[in-house]
Design goal:
By secondary structure, this protein is α/β, with parallel strands linked by helices. The protein contains three helices and three strands. The two termini are 24 Å apart.
Length: 83
């Protein structure tokens, strides 16, 4: 999965193009937008999972994701293999 920030706009809509390319390659894309507007709807139509809100809301989202996946890794007794 890829997280693309500023996916709704930006200079030359570079982030949106990155979303399109990743989706075209069959990747799962989570697109971070500041406002849930027409641009967010367009990203959804492309197949991206849209996460909207303020930077603080995004920080909370990332903390929740870290806890969710960390708890799963602990329950499954997953370990990082050192080289």
């Amino acid at each position: 999965m890829y997280l693309v920030t500023g996916a709704g706009g930006g200079v030359g809509s570079v982030s949106r193009r990155v979303v399109e390319l990743l989706l075209d390659d069959g990747e799962h894309v989570r697109a971070m937008v500041h406002r849930d507007d027409d641009r967010a709807d367009q990203l959804r139509a492309l197949g991206a999972e849209v996460v909207g809100g303020t930077p603080d809301a995004f920080g909370k989202f990332m903390q929740d994701e870290d806890k969710k996946w960390g708890d799963l890794a602990k329950r499954a007794d997953l370990r990082i293999k050192e080289k």
